[in-house]
Design brief:
- InterPro entries: Glutathione-S-Trfase_C_sf (IPR036282).
- This is GST C-terminal domain-containing protein.
- It contains 4 helices and no strands.
- It is an all-alpha fold and 89 residues long.
């Protein structure tokens, strides 16, 4: 059992490092622009935002936004896209 827990922790840590590395790569691709599309989000911005938005307030998403440079871009995207249109039950 101890082996399984240690293995699971290693996998989780590896995934967190990879997601943070990917976030940094995204910010590098912005190359100083507000969005990949320039002054307004393009389809690539919306696609990446669509992946991040559902996990934003989970631990992994919160860590990514707080521990990488993607936080500023994410905030700009929130402002550009607006509030979620999900239906609350």
């Amino acid at each position: 059992m101890k082996f399984i827990i240690n293995y699971a922790l290693k996998v989780i840590l590896a995934l967190q490092r990879k997601s943070q590395s990917t976030a940094e790569t995204w910010v590098d691709a912005l190359n100083g622009r507000e969005f990949l599309g320039g002054s307004k989000p393009n389809l690539a911005d919306i696609a990446v935002f669509g992946v991040l938005r559902p996990i934003r307030y989970l631990r992994s998403g919160r860590d990514m936004v707080e521990q990488t440079r993607i936080g500023d871009w994410y905030t700009r995207m929130e402002n550009a896209v607006g509030v979620s249109a999900r239906i609350k039950a």
